[in-house]
Design goal:
Helices cover about 40% and strands about 5% of the residues. By secondary structure, the protein is mainly alpha-helical. Helix 3 crosses helix 4, helix 6 crosses helix 8 and helix 13 crosses helix 16. One of its GO terms (biological process) is methylation.
Length: about 550
């Protein structure tokens, strides 16, 4: 399957990320975990033989679809057992806490005295009703909640990939295999169908880990490239039945990403802070994941945004701080959340290449890292986004000064990377005025596409202003829309301030500098500035 993740690439060898493409085109695989699926760890449905008997015995079970008849209510003995069993009560509390994206309320019941547990529906379930809330499985009615957002198009493209993969499997005779015949005899349904392939894709998107198992390479200090990275080789995709139950914590660092330790020949994952007995442990599904990343790959509302609205505190719009705001600055509202709000943009929606040489440079860059996405956030476009737009709009003379030769082709990858490094610094007021004007026009257009305002979304999430508090899948959709609107609002303010400075005679050398002349995107002593493999310009 080729469903691809929205999450940025990892640039650290041997680091794992949850939030990955199932088979990324031209990039290492990465993966992720959805609370909707983690709340129902390992399906016991016979249509999914990958679920092992051992896992079913030690984990809650759940049929992924009501395939034959509406779900029957738990028997009186099961209800009685569940109500008096302390373990079932604790399990039910856990499920309710971590199943907020499920469209159907489910409760744990013990299947037999001293035996395993299952999940029973608390409300009527119609035949064919999808019990998983992962956005990949949403139908047209739920996709309509994303009106105005590019996320609707991303999900539609992923669903089209699922349909294509299903057709390929059917043409190859997947349902004629002995395994499929046994499944048909036992259940009366086909093993491979659009619904089962979609379910499998959602599981891999939301629960799998990817690990770089290649041996570490010695650092040679090769500076011929700027801002590029090369992976050791294809990542290994794996389902990890214990670790995939860990919740995502935005504050967790790289130590909380599963990584393969070559010296130990083992995979390790470390706690990012002390935990008291009984406290919910967490890992990092990936560094710098935006609410949109969490939504697309995990079906998850950003935990800090959820905590803020649960406490009645609205996440406030970011001030026009610009790129010189201090790294790690605590904004008002949910701590650190505004730093993660991001609106990803297809570059072709913002500006077309100025000329054929600009187009060749951008095609060469795509040969290095794959399809580009620009990033807009509350502090404006990041350095990599500005550099990409500068490459699209630079004059022929500016391209030559950057090192992009007149006869360079899209196969000159080294030259393209060096040219992008040179273009990280602004060259002329005319080019900066053009790219900032294009950004301002796009942001205004993108914000106007949403049918509702950020204020209205915030009121619905918090249950304020006379609006009932949203819950379930619609809350998930509105939460990510609010994040995108915050990103656009902040970016609009920042770009406007840059245009005003430019119109006021500010030199291009000082245009993006802060009080301490530190450009946004510069890192510490070990940083490399704009990273073409990380975040804003990563492959999708």
């Amino acid at each position: 399957m080729n469903v691809q993740s929205a999450s940025p690439k990892t640039v650290t060898p041997a680091a794992s990320r949850r939030g990955a493409p199932l088979a990324a085109r031209g990039s290492p695989a990465q993966s992720c975990a959805s609370p909707a699926l983690r709340a129902q760890p390992y399906c016991s449905c016979p249509s999914h033989p990958s679920c092992s008997t051992q896992e079913q015995q030690r984990r809650p079970s759940l049929k992924c679809r009501a395939t034959t008849a509406p779900a029957a209510a738990p028997s009186p003995s099961q209800q009685h057992t569940a109500s008096e069993d302390p373990l079932a009560s604790r399990l039910k509390a856990w499920v309710l806490e971590h199943s907020k994206t499920l469209p159907t309320r489910l409760t744990p019941v013990r299947l037999s005295p001293g035996g395993p547990y299952g999940l029973a529906a608390e409300e009527p379930v119609r035949r064919g009703q999808v019990l998983s809330g992962h956005p990949l499985l949403w139908g047209p009615e739920r996709l309509a909640w994303l009106a105005g957002s590019p996320l609707a198009g991303v999900l539609a493209a992923r669903q089209a990939q699922v349909a294509e993969d299903t057709e390929v499997l059917l043409v190859a005779g997947a349902n004629e295999l002995p395994l499929a015949e046994r499944h048909r005899a036992a259940t009366g349904s086909e093993l491979v169908s659009a619904s089962t392939v979609g379910w499998a894709a959602a599981v891999l998107l939301s629960r799998s880990f990817s690990l770089d198992l290649a041996e570490e390479e010695a650092l040679e200090g090769d500076m011929s490239y700027f801002g590029t990275w090369t992976s050791h080789g294809p990542d290994t995709l794996a389902l990890v039945p214990w670790a995939d139950m860990l919740q995502h914590c935005p504050a967790a660092g790289p130590e909380s990403c599963a990584a393969y330790q070559f010296e130990l020949s083992a995979v390790t994952l470390a706690a990012h802070r002390p935990y008291a007995p009984g406290e919910l442990a967490a890992d990092s599904h990936g560094q710098g994941l935006s609410p949109a990343d969490l939504f697309l790959d995990y079906g998850l509302e950003d935990p800090e945004a959820a905590a803020a609205t649960a406490a009645g505190a609205a996440v406030r719009e970011a001030p026009a701080a610009g790129p010189h705001a201090d790294e790690g600055e605590v904004q008002e509202g949910a701590v650190g959340l505004l730093e993660r709000d991001r609106y990803d943009v297809d570059p072709s929606e913002v500006v077309a290449p100025r000329g054929p040489r600009n187009a060749v440079l951008l095609r060469a860059l795509a040969g290095v890292q794959g399809e580009a996405r620009l990033a807009l956030g509350p502090r404006g476009p990041d350095t990599a986004t500005l550099t990409y737009l500068r490459a699209a709009l630079a004059s022929d003379a500016e391209l030559v000064r950057a090192g992009w030769r007149v006869k360079a082709t899209e196969r000159d990858l080294d030259t393209a990377c060096r040219a992008m490094g040179a273009l990280a610094a602004p060259a002329s007021a005319a080019t900066e005025r053009a790219l900032l004007g294009a950004l301002a026009a796009f942001i205004e257009s993108a914000a106007a596409r949403f049918p509702t305002s950020l204020q209205h979304d915030t009121q619905r999430l918090a249950g304020a202003g006379g609006e009932p508090r949203l819950d379930g899948p619609e809350r998930l959709a509105v939460s990510v829309l609010a994040s995108q609107k915050r990103a656009l609002a902040g970016a609009a303010a920042v770009v406007s301030s840059w245009l005003e400075r430019l119109a006021g005679g500010c030199s291009v050398e000082e245009l993006y500098e802060g009080d301490e002349c530190e450009s946004w995107g510069e890192e510490g002593e070990e940083g490399e500035g704009a990273d073409w493999g990380n975040g804003s310009l990563g492959s999708r």
